[in-house]
Write a structure and sequence with these properties.
It is built from nine helices and eight strands. The protein is α/β, with parallel strands linked by helices and 267 residues long. The strands form two sheets. The chain has a five-stranded parallel sheet, sandwiched between helices. α1 crosses α9, α2 crosses α4 and α4 runs parallel beside α8. Bound molecules: adenosine-5'-triphosphate and the ligand Nc1ccn([C@H]2C[C@H](O)[C@@H](COP(=O)(O)O)O2)c(=O)n1. It holds the Pfam family Cytidylate_kin. It is found in: Cytoplasm. InterPro entries: Cytidylate_kin, Cytidylate_kinase_dom, P-loop_NTPase.
Length: 267
């Protein structure tokens, strides 16, 4: 267990001795689910409503993918990818109003908040995220961030965090106080994403979106389990809910769990 969370400075790849466990004295909410289910937008809004931190773990996979591409590392060489990722300190901002991600490159902090959303990063992130040593590395860094938000919250914030990503409920924070699988029917997820990315949900836009997110989910599902709820994970299906209704449904799960006294069992 690390005694001094280092989440506000650059977050270097931890050594095995530095492996941390997540403390459970503060509120930890873990949210996973397929692409376009609303993990990041709903989790952000839920974190803001609860007054706690927000962690987008996908942004971390995206940031190290940016770094690997930038360095020209051969993506088919898993060892080289993992070795390079280990050299890249990340700086993750967990304010739900303005989450950020940056990497330290040659001693200088490079803000990647926008860069991680480019098509190039999106097209390559699954390959990087599939490298087991990269996953081990980032899982440890994510646990450090979660722990930091619990034991040393930013001024004005409550201790705790809403953390989202495809392996949060099962691997990163299986002991979280509240674990939610956020899902929606594929056609609804595609329409929302097409609307978001292209400003339209017409048939051509949907076809382009389908190629992007269905294929990414197919590849990602080889390394992470995010389509079915693990034991103790509550499913929130937003197919028939609007955005605010989905946030309210997640907050309702949190409230019922907290009232019921914490982890384990079904809501
Ligand atoms: N219940 C909802 N009703 C309407 N729109 C929603 C709802 N939930 C999410 N959205 C919208 O759907 C889009 C996709 O959501 P978001 O990016 O949060 O998904 P995600 O699960 O994080 O996806 P990915 O894993 O691909 O990053 C966003 O435009 C978001 O505002
Ligand atoms: N906990 C996580 C989070 C993300 N990934 C991978 C899989 C995704 O394709 C990619 C980007 O995530 P997104 O920003 O779209 O949520 O990162 C993962 O493997 N585990």
């Amino acid at each position: 267990m690390s005694s001094t969370p280092a989440a506000r400075g650059p977050l270097a790849s931890p050594t095995a001795e530095q492996e941390v466990s997540v403390v459970s004295t503060a509120l930890v909410v873990a949210v996973d689910g397929p692409s376009g289910s609303g993990k990041s937008s709903v989790s952000r809004a839920a974190a803001a409503a609860l007054g706690v931190a927000f962690l987008d773990t996908g942004a971390m996979y995206r940031a190290v993918t940016w770094a690997v591409l930038e360095a020209g590392v051969d993506l088919s060489d898993a060892e080289a990818v993992a070795a390079h990722v280990r050299t890249v300190p990340l700086v993750v901002g967990t304010d739900p109003q303005a989450p950020t991600v940056a990497a330290v490159v040659e001693g200088a902090e490079v803000d990647l908040t926008e860069a991680v959303r480019t098509a190039r990063v999106t097209a390559n992130v699954s390959a990087v995220a599939a490298v087991p040593a990269v996953r081990q590395d980032l899982v440890l860094r994510q646990r450090t961030l979660i722990e930091a938000a619990c034991v040393a919250p930013e001024p004005g914030r409550e201790p705790g965090i809403v953390a989202e990503g495809r392996d949060i409920t099962t691997v990163v924070a299986p002991d979280a106080d509240v674990r939610v699988l956020l899902t929606a029917e594929e056609s609804v997820r595609l329409a929302r994403r097409a609307q978001q990315d292209l400003g339209t949900a017409d048939s051509e836009a949907l076809a382009a979106t389908r190629r992007g997110i269905v294929e990414r989910d197919r590849v990602d599902s080889r390394t992470t389990a995010f389509t079915t709820a693990a034991d103790g994970v509550v499913t929130v299906d937003s197919t028939a809910l609007d955005f605010d209704g989905t946030v309210a449904a997640v907050l309702d799960v949190v409230e019922r769990r907290v009232r019921a006294g914490g982890t384990g069992g079904r809501a």
